[in-house]
Design goal:
132 residues, alpha+beta, two-stranded parallel sheet, 5 helices
Amino acid sequence: MLWCMTKKGKLQNQPSMPEQFQPYIVDVKNVKGGGHCGFHAVAALMGFGEDGCSRVQQDLMNELVHNIHLYELVFKENDRVKEVLGALYCFTESARFKNWFLLPYMGYLVASAYNVAFITLESRLSLTFLPF
């Protein structure tokens, strides 16, 4: 398991991950913030380097466009596919809120685009996404 967090996290001063997960962590990636941290995290974990953010955005955009009818069924809400596409189409240095890595929507795209199990571990809600 790899653990990713933004540079604003508490990695240097105290453990930032729950103690029960620590024995399973094989590497820690501390990624840039700026609104693209989710994309930077996926890029780092997929081995593209942290600056592979735009590659991740393009891969997720391709996944969404090529399987748009499936994602319209999964996302269900009106205009959600259009909103996710808009979030992916932001290649500036920093991103506004509307261009952030939107969970759960991006989780489905990451799992299917890269054929991986994508797991988020958070204190409020943890999610697991499997490829379609």
